[in-house]
Amino acid sequence: MSVTSWGNPARASRRRVALVLAITLLLGLLGSLSTQTARAAACPCTIFGTQTPGTLADTDTAPVELGVKFRADQDGFVTGIRFYKGTGNTGTHTGSLWNAAGTRLATVTFTDESTSGWQQANFATPVTVTADTTYVASYYAPVGRYSADTGYFATGSKVNSPLTALQNASDGGNGVYRYGTGGGFPTSTYQATNYWVDVVFSPSGADTTKPTVTGFAPGGGSTGVPVGTPVSATFGEDVQQSSITFTLTGASAVPATLNYDSATRTATLTPNAPLATSTTYTARLSGAQDSSGNVMDPITWTFTTGATGSPCPCTMWPNTTTPATEATADDSAVELGVKFRTSQNGFVTGVRFYKGSRNTGTHVGSLWSKSGTKLASVTFTDETATGWQQATFASPVPVTAGTTYVASYYAPVGRYANNSSYFANTATSRGPLTALRNGTDGLNGLYKYGASGFPTNGFQATNYWVDVVFDTSATDTTLPSLVSMAPVGGSTGVAVSTPVTATFSENVSAATMTLTGPNGDVVPATFGYDAQSLTATLTPNALLAASTSYTVSVSGAKDAAGNTMAPASWSFTTGAPPPPGIAQGPGGPIAVVTNSANPYSKYITEILHTEGLNEFRMIDVSSLSASALAPYDVVVLGAVAVDAGQAATLSAWVDGGGNLIAMKPSGTLSALLGLTAAGGSVDDGYLKVDTATAPGSGIVSDTIQFHGSADRYALSGAQSIATLYTDAATATTNPAVTLHSVGSNGGEAAAFTYDLPRSIVAMRQGNRAWAGQERDQLSPRRSDDMFFGTSSSPDWIDLNKVAIPQADEQQRLLANLIQVMNRDRMPLPRFWYFPRGLDAVIVGTGDDHGNGGTSGRFDQLLANSPANCSVADWTCYRYSSYVYPNTPRLTNSAAASYTSQGFEVGVHETTYCSDFTPTSLAGNYANDLSVWRSIYPDVPSPVTNRTHCIPWSDWATQPKTELANGMRLDTNYYYFPGSWVQDRPGFMSGSGMPMRFADTDGSTIDVYQAVTQMTDESDQTYPFTVDQLLTNATGPLGYYGAFTANMHTDLPTEPQSDALISSARSHEVPIISGKQLLTWLDGRNASAFGKVVWNGNTLSFSITGGTGSNGLTGMLPTAGPGGSVLSGLSMAGSGVDYTTSTVKGLEYASFHATDGSYTATYSAPPAGAMTFSALTVDNGAATAEPSATATWTTSRVATSEVAIGTSPTSLKTKIKLGDATRNHRIEARRLKPGTKYYYRVTSTDLNGRSGTYPAADKAPATFTTPTRDTRAPKVTAARVTALPGGTATVRWATDEPSTAVVQAGTGKSDLEPVARADELSTDHALVLTGLDPGRTYLINGVSTDAAGNAGQSGTLKFVTPAWGVSEQSTPTFRRGSLNGDVSVDDQDPLGRVTLSGDSRTARSGTFVSGLLDTQAMVVWDRAIWDCTIPKGATASLQVRTGSTAKPDTTWTDWTKVPANGRISGASRYLQYRVQLTVGAGANAPSLWAVGFSHNGDAPPRDDEGH
C-alpha cells in the first residue's frame, strides 16, 4: 500500500493512518457535507463577521496573494474586500475580486489600516455578482505573515447567508494562494486552510461612491516637461465622456482636444499646438460622472515645461544607470521586453539594452504593438563587452502618445541584466517616455523563452533593462536593404520548383526582381510583394532546369522616404534530376502488365515492393506476345484493356502452365478466368475472404472495405476466394476474388473483380472527390477531411473496421495468391517488411514549436535505451523532432551531435495554419528551409516532414513539394480529430505499411506516406492505444506495421511519450526516427532477388541488398513443387541458418539476407503416415463466450482442420484453414462454458494425403471450458495522486486479472473514460493528463475480467494542485542517476524507484533526478510525493533549484523538504533527490510519483490539430 508522503519519514510507517488522512484531507473522498454555521445576516454582510483566526500571523515571510472561494445565494453586489491582519503583516495590501476563470473584476488598495484586526477597503464601484456562482476574493501580503487556520474548509462550508465560503473540493480547493512578488490570481491550495479573506456583500447595489482620479500625467509639480506633451488623467472607474470637463491654462486657456478611452479609463487632453517653453501650466479636471450619476470632486495640478522645444532624442534610462544584476545565472535563450508609452507623438528610432559580461551571441532588437505586431527589428552590431548597447532601425517608427508599445531584444544565451520587482509599485518616467508600472496595462517586465518572438510572460515585475530611443521628429536617410533571400547565395541542390524570395529591411515599393539562366536569358516568372512580411516573391512559370546555375537580381526598391536600395544579386544552382524510378523492377519470374492509360496499374509494383516480392519486371500490355511472356511464371495484369488477340495470347500462356492474376479484367478474359458476367457492379463495398481456401488462409475473416467499382460475375468453373458484400453485413452471390485451374499443365487464372491498386490508393489517401473540401469543420483542410463523412455520405473508412489494416490484408491476399499459384513451379523468395524479422516498429516523432523540449526528449530516449544498444540495428530508442528554427537548447552543434547519435532534427515547415496553393506552399518550403539551413549548417537537410497544423489542401501538392525539396517521407496524414477517432486504435488509411503516394492520375510519387496513427491530441488513451497496435502486430492477428506517433517535443517529457517507451519495451519493439525508416524503405525496396531458377529439387537465387537494408530478412516458402519441403539452405557452399514460422497461413523459412548466391534444397516429404505432435488446447480464462485454441505440429506441410463436438461420437462442427504449414493453430469460438468438448485434428498435405489425430479408432481428445464466471473482480487499495502539471496517477489492485479504465469528470453524471489499459493484470496504474489546476474531479476505476464482469473502485474525489512539474513513470525516472542500491524497475505498469538487492541485508542508496524544466521563471510552492515506506525503511526528499541548464554554483544547496511540502525560491529548473534506506529483513521503500507546484502557468505548446 502506498501513502502520499510530505517528506516526513517518521510518520510514514503509520501508513494506514497516513493514507486515511491523505485521502480525507488531500483527495477529499465523497462524504456528507457539513457546515460550520448557517444563519442569515443583515446586509451589507460578510462571511466571517467578527471572528478571530486561530493563527493570527504565520511565520511565512514570502510575498503571497491569499484568497477564499465563495458564493452568494442571491444576486447582489460585492462592495469591498476584508482581511484579518496580524502582527508583522505590513506593507501595502491590495484586495481583488476575481471570477472563477481568473479574470480580475475589481481591485482596491487598503488605506488607513489599523495595526491588527479586520481591515476593509471598498471598491470604486460595486461589482455585480450572480447567485450560486463561484468567485474568489483575495488580498496581497507583500511580506507574508498572514493569518491562517489549517483544515478550516476540510469538513464543511462556512455559511453566513447569503454568503458561503465553500467546502474544500466542492469547486476545487478552498483556501487559495499564489506565491510571488505582485501576487496574481490564487489557485494553489494547502490542507483546506482559511487565510481569513472576506467580502462585503449587499443585495442592493446602490452606488454612492464618487469617481476618483488614480493617476495623472505630467505629475503634479513636474518640471522640464516636453512642450509636445498631452495631459492625461486616469479614473478609478468608468465615467461618462460627455460629463468630463478638462482644461489647461498657461498665460491663457490652451486650445486642446479631449479624448476618453473607456478601456483604460483615461481622459487625454492634447494641445492643438506645442506649449510654450519654461512656462507653468495648470490642469483642471471636474464634472466626471459614473454610470450611477456620482460626480467627482474637482482636482487641480500644475507642471512646468522645459527650457527647450524638445529634450530628445531621449531614452527611459540614462547611460549612467546600471542594473542591480548585470548578468543573471539564467542561460536559456530568451526574448526580453518592456512596455512603455510616450506622452507625445513622435518616432522610435532604435532599441537599447544593458549587456552584462556573459550576455554573448547575436542580439536582435524589436519594436511591437501591444497586440504583438512587429513594427521593426534590427540586429545589434559593434557591441561593447558590457554596458548599454544601441541599434538604430532602418526607418524610424511613428508612435502615438498614450499608446502602449513593447520594446524587446533577443538574448540567445540568456545572462541578461535584471532588477527584480522594479515595476511592482511605480512606473519609470523620463521626459516623454514612461516604462509602465506592473498592472497599468497588464504585466511589465516581459519575457519569452525559446525562439525569438513577442514576449508576453512576466515574472515578479522584473526590469530586464530594455530601452528605446525616441525623438519628436525623424528624417529617414537609410537605404532599404535585403535582410534575407531564398535560395541563399551559393546554395546548391535547390529544388527546380522553388520560388525565389527576397526580404527587405523595411516596407518598399517599385522593386524589380529578375531571374536569369546561364546564358543571360530571363526566366518568365510572376512577381508578388507581401507588405506584412516585407517579402518579394518571384515564382517561375515553369520548373527550372536541373543542375543549372541561376542569378537573381533585385533593384529599384524604395522606402516611404524615397530612399532607393543599392542593387543586389546572387546565384544558386538547382539539384540534379531525380534518379529513375524503381517501378520497372529488377526482373525475375513475375511480370506486371500495365498501360500508361491507367497509371494506377503501375502501382502494382509498389504493392509488390511492400510485400517483398522484389523479383518482377514491368511490361506494357501492348508488348504482350508468347515470347514476351515466356520468361515469366506469374503475370499480374493491371486494369487495362485487353483485346481478343491479347486475351488469346494470355490464354495460351496460362494453358501452358503460367499463372495469371487480373485486376478488374476485361470481358475478353472471362472464359479464361472461369467467370460469366452477371451485369451491374458493387461500388465502394466490402469483401469477405474465405479462409478455408489456400490463398485466403491467414487473411482476416471479417468483411473488409474496397473502394471503386467491382464487376458482378457468376462462377463458371472458378473457385471463390472472396465474396462481394454491398455493406459490412450483406453478402452477394458474386465473387470479389476468384481462382481457376486451366488446362493440364498446372496453369491458373485468378481475378480481382475490382481494381486492387486503385482501391489501395483510395483507401490510403482518401476520397479524391473530397480533396480540397473542409468537412470536419476544423480549418485548415487536412488529410482527415478526405475520410470524414457527413450526414449525407458515410465515412470513407468504416471506423468499426479501423482496427483492421484492410488495405494491407488485401495486399497480403495478392501475395498469398502469387505464392500458392506458383507453388507447383517453384517457391518465390521474398523480403520481410522490417529488419531482423520485426513485426512492428514505432516511428517516434515530435513537433517542437520553438519551445525547446527537443533536447530533453532526446536525452530521455538516450537514458531509456538499452545498454550497448546499436543505432544501426534499431535497438536504441530514437526520435525525429521537427523544430522551428531558433529552438532553444538546440544549437547547430547540439543538433549535429544528436544527429550523429541517430536522432533526426528536421524543419517544422509551416503555412501558418492556412490552406495553401501549390505556389504558396513552394514559397513556404523555400523560406523555412533557407532559414533552417542557415541555423543548422552542420545538420543534413531534412528528408522527412510534418507541416505545422498538418494542412492538406488538395490531393497531392504536399508530397510533390516535399519531393522537390528532398523530403521523401511524409507524416502529415493524421488520425484526428478526437471526436471522430473516439479512442479507436487502428488504421485510418487501412494500412500500417509506409508506401508511396499516388498523384491525381494514379502515377506514383516518390514520397512515402507514413500515417501518424498515434497523437497526443486526438483524445486517444494510453497505454491502450499503443498496446493495442503492438499486440495486434506481434500477436496471432499479424497486423504488422510501422506505427508513427506524434508526441510533441515542446516539453522534455510527457506521459503519452512515456507510455510509448514503456509499451515498446514490453513488446520488444524498436522506436526509430523517420529518417531511419526512410533509409530502410529505400534500402529494402532497392534490394533484389536475381537469377531465380528451379532445377530439379533446387531453387537457386541471388540477393543484392540495397544501401540501407541493414538487417534484411529473406523468406522462402517451405513448401515446394510436388509436396516437397525445404530441407536446407546454403550460400556459396556454406550452410545458412533459418527459422520457420507461419505468415498469413503460409509457412516460411526466414534467414539473414546478405549479398550472395543461394541454393535452397527441397526434399520429398517423409514417407509413411503423417505424424502429429505437441497437440494442446489452450482454453484460456473464463470469458462471456469461451473459446479454445488448438495447436499441433505435423511431419509434413499441410492444412489445418478441427472437428469438435460435445459428444465423442458426434464431432459435427468443423473448422478448416487452407494454410500450408507444419505448425498449426485453429481457434474455436462461441463455446459453452463449463462444457466438456471432444475433438480430433486433421491435416492434409500438398499431395492430398491426410492424417487425423487421435486416429479414428482412438478416443477423441478432450478439453473442458471454464465454468461461467459471474463474479466481478474485487477492487482494493484504490488511490489517486494528483500531481502538478495537470496530471494524476491512479492505482488499484484486483484479485484476478482484469483490464483497467479510469472514468473521470467534474460530476457524477459526466464521468467518461479518460485512461485505459486492456492487458489483463492484477496491478493497475494509469496516468490522467490534461487536468486543470485547482479543480475538483471525480474518478471511478473500473476493472473488467475476461468474462466481462466489471468491478469498480467507487467514486474518489480529488483536487488538482497548481501548475508544476512531475515524474511518475519509469521512462522519466530513468533520466536520473542511481547510487548505492537504488534501482528503477517496472514493478507495476508505471514503474518506481526502489532498493534492489538481497532483502536479508540492509540496503541504502540515493536517486538524483534529471532536471525538471518549467520553461519559465517561477516561484516554487510545494512538493507532493507518493512513496511507500514500510516499517524498518526510511525515505527523504530533497530539492535544489537554479536557472542554468546544468547545475553550477548559482544553484541552491540541497534542502530537505519539510513535512508541509513547502519549497522556497524562484528559478526555471528544479532537481530532486531521494535517499532510501531499509534494514535487514524489511521491505524496501518505493517512490511511485513526485511533483512540485509553482506559481506559473501551463508551459507553452502548439498543437497540430488546434
TrEMBL record:
Transmembrane segments: none annotated. Residues 51-197, 321-466 form the DUF4082 domain. It comes from the Bacteria. Residues 1-40 form the signal peptide. It holds the Pfam family DUF4082. InterPro entries: Class_I_gatase-like, Cu-Rt/internalin_Ig-like, DUF4082, Purple_acid_Pase-like_N, SbsA_Ig. Residues 207-305, 476-574 form the SbsA Ig-like domain. GO terms for molecular function: acid phosphatase activity; metal ion binding. SUPFAM superfamilies: Purple acid phosphatase, N-terminal domain. Coiled coil: none annotated. Keywords: Signal. Residues 1250-1272 are annotated as: Disordered. This is Ig-like domain-containing protein.
